[in-house]
Amino acid sequence: DQQVKQNSPSLSVQEGRISILNCDYTNSMFDYFLWYKKYPAEGPTFLISISSIKDKNEDGRFTVFLNKSAKHLSLHIVPSQPGDSAVYFCAASPQGAQKLVFGQGTRLTINP
Amino acid sequence: EAQVTQNPRYLITVTGKKLTVTCSQNMNHEYMSWYRQDPGLGLRQIYYSMNVEVTDKGDVPEGYKVSRKEKRNFPLILESPSPNQTSLYFCASRPGLAGANVLTFGAGSRLTVL
Q1: Are the Cβ atoms of B59 and A46 closer than 8 angstroms?
Q2: pLDDT tens digit string along A9-35?
Q3: B102 interaction partners in chain A (CB closer than 8 Å)
Q4: What's the pLDDT tens digit per position in A29-41?
Q5: Residue B10 has pLDDT above 90, yes or no
Q6: Using CA atoms in the order A101, A1, A30, B2, what is the torsion angle rounded to 10 degrees?
Q7: Are the C-beta atoms of B37 and B17 separated by less than 8 Å?
Q8: B71 near A111, Cβ under 8 Å?
Q9: Is residue B30 exposed (0-12), middle (13-18) or buried (19+ Cβ within 10 Å)?
Q10: Is residue B18 classed as helix, strand or coil in its secondary structure?
């Protein structure tokens, strides 16, 4: 039972354009959402997060949007840079639980 | 440098031969956790620890053991490894504050069980 789903295994975007990564969830008890970025042979690193009481959070080139009614989360990267090429994981935290539930990941490739 | 260190990074073993993957963090974090990453499944939690001598099961604990005798160390023990435990394993830690779910991950340990 995949509670957090990233339906696009891969995404290819031209350098300088916007990258949009999507994530859907099923558990309405999730109250905190995060995006992690992972390079090959390294562990995931935290990128940006959003609380369920907000619908948008920005940090430089990265913006996360939360649509609670649709149970949908998206990460926008603008402008996209070659160093953004990585696997991106969406994660959610159930209220009161001591874990993160991860999506399957989306491999983003930024083309020069 | 603040980090989570896992060893070994790569290991090939055979069915039934006990092994331990070590994890150590230098950030004085109360909370530590183990995840495994498999294709198409993302990362799934195996075990976690809220503090010394306090451990609990995650979503996929079968075939694994953990211990937390010291705050900095959280080893993952496979008593009798089987091929379905072939996976990429990550240790992670964070401060013990409730709601602070930003984990710091180690670089990963790729385990192959033949």
Answers
A1: no
A2: 999 999 999 999 999 999 999 989 999
A3: 34, 46, 49
A4: 998 999 999 999 9
A5: yes
A6: 0
A7: no
A8: no
A9: middle
A10: coil
